[in-house]
């Protein structure tokens, strides 16, 4: 449902306004930034991480609100207050999932924060596939959507392979250099058809990562699951991946494409369970087949190369939780989160950190609510839930993770 008093992002604004994008996944979003530029938009990815972001979030969002909302709103308001942007020529962008999760209401919190700070002229663009809001100056084209799928898959591959190199590199910074090289190269390819040369790109990416001098030391592998922002965002999870690497572990994260496919699967489920949204069901089925097909091509390239561990595809992941939780449970990360925990354990990653905003009801059900049953069925599993909020102590969070890692190392030695 659209708000009558909202400021629409118009076609004229596309030429004059810079769209600020809140960050979540560095490599993915840098590629998406160039994708949007290639489509004629002026955009800038916000990479700020200082503590004033939290302060602005606390001032502008109620303390009981989901921590990701607090951080995203805080990052945007902090940017607008920096003096770097002309408030009459800047816009903000935010996703809306359209489900029962509070995430669908973040956009209204942001508009309220803008009004409270005298910035109500700044338009906020909703990115959604449910027709919740439309903007004449920001529309999805088939070309844009296809390029977006490739951007996400390239980002998933870079993240997946990078995490298999960084903990083992002999020369600090080698992996990061390859990360930056290929993120920029793929981002630049969004301006031409070069991104379609996936076989050539995949082969070159894998060869560059393989060439990094690495040790053969065996390290504890730790899976990271949870609420999507807390799972991926270094700002949200206090740079959890870097912390695990410093502690001598290898982080393991599933790709963003799995979450996109999960959203499509839920559109299919809406019709199967409730006999609604038949058109969305049919479109989602087509999109789902395309997503999994594209993901399989990337997995096949990694498998053929033979030097790196291979991820599971979405069709393998989605059946993992069938004996644990109904697919009707689809608030937030829903059944996918339970499936991801089980997929990690099935693939030999028994150590799992579940990152979640404090007070996130969907996560408490699909993560904490499933942990006991998972541990009962897999006694070797070592799962810990870590809550994040503005008042949480980083030391306490890290100490809980260190205890989990200590148990993991003892189990590995056994």
Could you characterize the architecture of this molecule?
This protein is α/β, with parallel strands linked by helices. Among the domains are: 11-139, Rossmann fold (3-Layer(aba) Sandwich), CATH 3.40.50; 140-217 and 278-310, no CATH class. It contains 16 helices and eight strands.
Give the secondary structure arrangement, pairings included.
Blueprint lengths: L10 H6 L1 E5 L3 H13 L3 E5 L5 H9 L6 H15 L8 E6 L10 H11 L7 E4 L14 H24 L8 H16 L8 H13 L9 E7 L1 H5 L7 H7 L2 E4 L3 H19 L3 H28 L8 H4 L16 H13 L4 E7 L3 H17 L4 E7 L5 H20 L1
Parallel strand pairs: 1-2, 1-3, 3-4, 5-6, 5-7, 7-8
Strand content: 5-15%
- Unreliable spans are none
DSSP helix count? 16
The whole-number mean of residue pLDDT values reads 93
- Secondary structure category: alpha/beta
Strand order of the largest sheet: 2-1-3-4
The outline comes out as: globular
What is the tally of beta strands? 8
Overall CATH architecture of one domain: 3-Layer(aba) Sandwich
Task: Please bin the fraction of helical residues.
Answer: 40-55%
Q: What characteristics describe this protein?
A:
414 residues; alpha/beta; Rossmann fold; four-stranded parallel beta sheet; 16 helices; 8 strands; globular
């Amino acid at each position: 449902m659209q708000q009558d008093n909202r400021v629409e992002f118009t076609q004229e604004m596309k030429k004059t306004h810079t769209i600020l994008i809140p960050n979540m996944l560095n490599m993915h979003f840098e590629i998406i930034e160039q994708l949007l530029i290639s489509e004629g938009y002026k955009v800038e990815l916000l990479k700020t991480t200082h503590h004033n972001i939290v302060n602005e979030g606390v001032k502008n969002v109620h303390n009981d609100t989901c921590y990701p909302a607090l951080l995203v709103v805080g990052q945007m308001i902090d940017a607008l207050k920096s003096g770097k942007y002309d408030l009459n020529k800047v816009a903000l962008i935010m996703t809306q999932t359209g489900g029962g999760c509070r995430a669908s209401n973040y956009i209204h919190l942001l508009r309220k924060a803008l009004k409270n700070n005298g910035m109500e002229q700044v338009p906020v663009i909703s990115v959604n596939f449910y027709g919740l809001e439309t903007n004449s100056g920001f529309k999805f084209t088939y070309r844009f959507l296809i390029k977006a799928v490739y951007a996400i898959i390239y980002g998933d591959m870079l993240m997946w392979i990078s995490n298999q190199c960084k903990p083992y590199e002999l020369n600090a910074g080698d992996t990061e250099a390859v990360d930056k090289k290929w993120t920029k190269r793929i981002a630049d390819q969004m301006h031409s058809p070069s991104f379609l040369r996936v076989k050539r790109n995949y082969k070159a990416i894998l060869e560059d990562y393989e060439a990094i001098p690495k040790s053969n030391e065996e390290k504890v592998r730790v899976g990271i699951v949870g609420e999507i922002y807390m799972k991926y965002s270094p700002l949200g999870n206090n740079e959890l991946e870097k912390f695990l690497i410093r502690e001598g572990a290898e982080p393991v994260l599933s790709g963003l494409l799995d979450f996109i496919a999960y959203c499509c699967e839920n559109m299919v489920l809406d019709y199967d369970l409730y006999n609604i949204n038949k058109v969305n069901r049919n479109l989602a089925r087509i999109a789902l087949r395309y997503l999994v097909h594209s993901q399989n091509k990337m997995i096949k390239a990694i498998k053929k190369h033979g030097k790196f561990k291979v991820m599971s595809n979405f069709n393998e992941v989605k059946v993992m939780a069938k004996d644990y939780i109904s697919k009707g449970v689809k608030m937030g990360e829903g059944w996918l989160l339970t499936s991801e925990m089980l997929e990690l354990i099935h693939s030999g990653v028994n150590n799992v950190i579940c990152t979640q905003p404090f007070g996130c009801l969907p996560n408490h059900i699909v993560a904490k609510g499933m942990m006991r049953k998972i541990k009962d069925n897999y006694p070797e599993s070592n799962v810990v839930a870590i809550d994040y909020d503005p008042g949480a102590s980083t030391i306490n969070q890290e100490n809980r993770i260190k205890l989990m890692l200590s148990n993991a190392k003892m189990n590995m030695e056994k």
